[in-house]
Amino acid sequence: MKSRFSLINGGLYPETLPPCFISLDAKRAFHGIVSALDQAKFHEKKTEYSRYNSTKHDGSRRFFGTPNIVTYFHISSFIWRNWKSFEANFALSSFSIGKPKLMGDTDERAVKVPSLSELSKHTSTNLKFAPFILKADIAQCFPSIYTHSISWAAHGIEQSKGDTNKDSTANTYNALDFFVRNGQRGNTRGVIVGPDAYRLIAEFILSKIDDELQKAVGNLIVGAVRHVDDYYIGLRTEHDAQSVLSHLREVLASYELNLNDHKTRIYSSLEPINDLWAQRLRDHMRFGTFGSSHDRVERAISEAVTTAKEIGSDSPIKIMLRSFDEAEAYRGPHWEFIE
To answer: Rounded distance, CA 215 to CA 217, Å?
Structure first.
């Protein structure tokens, strides 16, 4: 990570906010006070955060937040100083396909997380010919993360519980736990959804959970992928799947997390991983560099709008918009029609 301001300049606000919300001037705004803030970083100053909600793909709503920028400065500074440790924890997971990638100064976001659209490709490779698949979803992942588990993932649960001082020299991640709590009015339950630093923190914890699950039942797993809080685990038998599910519950519970039973199931690998509509739609959206014909663009828009109405979700529209953006359609000959 180039700078302690990387996560502030391009990752303070949630992506759901309009582009007029920017924090690119953060470094200039902090000029001359950085040293004083570093010296006062362990002051007990619980701050509020701005809270708002936005729709999810299924029409339900999710709360997002923007923390106090000074508190977020301390979180960003910690991650910047300990980036090698973050990368080491990410590397513990052999399941994750959503490992965050740091972006450049000219990119829109500080961190990029691979999209769910890459799931099919990775599951086909990683799950191989496993006859059964365990699909599991962590219930309310970000709102359920216990802030103390940040230190647990870094230092171990027992060691962390033995020394909870915020300025501990042995358990250095106690400091990050403290900064996160300060940014959400002292709450230990949940982390804010939206800013990029919290994506990194969540992946830090979940990568450690993956490692512990692998050590417990690795011989039973044919292959597995995790995208943020969604697991797809390939097993040889239904009995193995039940055993791995039980161990996954135990490991998650040790970090104060739980599975969403409504989204957790064991099924035959002959069933498609992704909905067929999503696979069909992505075929229509493979534009590459934007030299597509007018007819193909019109067909893609029609497919997305029709599918969205049929399934009662705006996910097809999001896939379409993301595809246009990635292909830089706004530079192409059909932009006026697309608008």
So the answer is: 6
